[in-house]
Design a protein that fits this description.
Conserved hypothetical protein from pyrococcus furiosus pfu- 392566-001, ParB domain; Conserved hypothetical protein from pyrococcus furiosus pfu- 392566-001, domain 2; six-stranded antiparallel sheet; alpha+beta; 26% helix
């Protein structure tokens, strides 16, 4: 049975809204300041659905989830959101730039059949209960998927890039370049056959996927919204997620596990940077651990059992990490190396979990280009 399907996407009406003003990154990478900015950008911005504001007088009957449901219904009534005329796949292309790297991310947006881990779909990170509870409440309030589960697979034939791109549906600009969305109606059976035997690894969206699994068990909905991209040709990168802490781990623990010397950190396997009020340091593990990833070595030594997940903040920008310490917002930051995609694949297929935020796949496909209503799904 096919595991990716075409579907009738729920789409913004480009005759009524400027697409560039209504899309946003995934909810879990949006700061409070960015949330405010997206709220101001357009009254129909997807932010009101994926990351609604909370207010002191919220109740069980009136809260960010119920408001998302009301916005969704209202926008459909107003013709702001419309169901596509027929089922199709959607090809998503996003130009990106980070540091000196540039690329054109390419992925296929589809309706994905939900199944348990271990046969065709593999995670690589553990999840937390609180984010899953949050997403489940939103699903119950809207019965709609807004943000894609980002899956990667192996394909040296560059199948997706050969799809017919004659039907450009949306195009918009953002600060890094352009984003294009194409409707793919030709060869849909061939697409389903191609993906039938593919193994998918979750790159981003573990909480969303496990929420979809629970929603399936409770409501019988067997599909979710996904974007799938080739490891060989998808043109994405993995960035390091640097750790920010309000309190510096005790010196004794650091010295027990690491050799410490003053210096400016540069990416090198098996080494970490640490910045605190006393300066900038390079940490080298006292015991070489060939089988562990850099992020695991750091967590095993200083974080696990000592720092709770909620007390760690993350940034992909090394300069922001350092300045966050120098301006007093954080006591300490740890600068990490990026995890290799080969390590992600290896661990996922062995069903061995990495620490949370061991990877940061980039770019993050913008939410709002295609929504997936589950009203008629079984």
């Amino acid at each position: 049975m096919a595991r990716v399907f075409p579907f009738k996407g729920l789409l913004y009406n480009k005759e009524k809204v400027d697409i560039s003003s209504v899309v946003a990154p995934p909810y879990d990478v949006i700061s409070k300041k960015e949330q405010d900015e997206y709220y101001k950008k357009n009254p129909y911005n997807i932010i009101r659905l994926i990351l609604g504001k909370e207010y002191p007088d919220d109740t069980d009957e009136n809260n960010k989830y119920t408001r998302a449901g009301k916005y969704l219904s209202l926008w459909k009534e107003q013709g702001i959101l419309e169901e596509d005329k027929s089922e199709c796949f959607y090809l998503y292309e996003q130009e990106w730039e980070v540091g000196r790297k540039r690329g054109l991310f390419r992925g296929l947006i589809c309706s994905l059949k939900i199944e348990d881990y271990g046969k065709n779909i593999f995670p690589h990170e553990r999840t937390l209960e609180k984010p899953k509870e949050d997403r489940l409440k939103l699903l119950y309030a809207t019965d709609t998927c807004f943000c894609y589960i980002f899956l990667v697979y192996s394909d040296k034939t560059n199948f997706i890039s050969r799809l017919n791109k004659k039907n450009l549906f949306f195009e918009c600009k953002y600060e890094k370049g352009s984003i294009k969305l194409f409707r793919i109606e030709e060869g849909m059976e061939e697409i389903k056959r191609f993906f039938l035997r593919k193994k998918f690894i979750i790159a981003d969206g573990h909480h969303r996927y496990e929420t979809a699994l629970k929603y399936k068990r409770e409501q019988g909905k067997t599909k979710t919204l996904a974007i799938v991209s080739s490891i060989e040709n998808g043109e994405f990168v993995i960035l390091p997620a640097h750790r920010l802490l309000k309190k510096t781990p005790d010196t004794e623990s650091i010295n027990r596990y690491f050799k410490i010397k003053e210096g400016i950190y540069k990416e090198k396997k098996g080494m970490f940077g640490m910045v605190n009020k006393n300066g900038s340091f390079i940490l080298t593990p006292r015991i070489k651990e060939n089988n562990n990833l850099d992020v695991e070595i750091l967590h095993n030594a200083l974080f696990d059992g000592k720092v709770i997940e909620e007390d760690i903040d993350y940034t992909m920008d090394k300069e922001i990490a350092i300045s966050s310490v120098s301006n007093g917002n954080y006591a300490c930051c740890f600068l990490l190396n990026p995890t290799k995609i080969s390590d992600v694949i290896k661990r996922a297929k062995k069903q061995e979990f990495m620490p949370g935020k061991a990877t940061y796949f980039y770019p993050k496909p913008f939410c709002g280009f295609v929504l997936h209503s589950l009203r008629n799904e079984e």
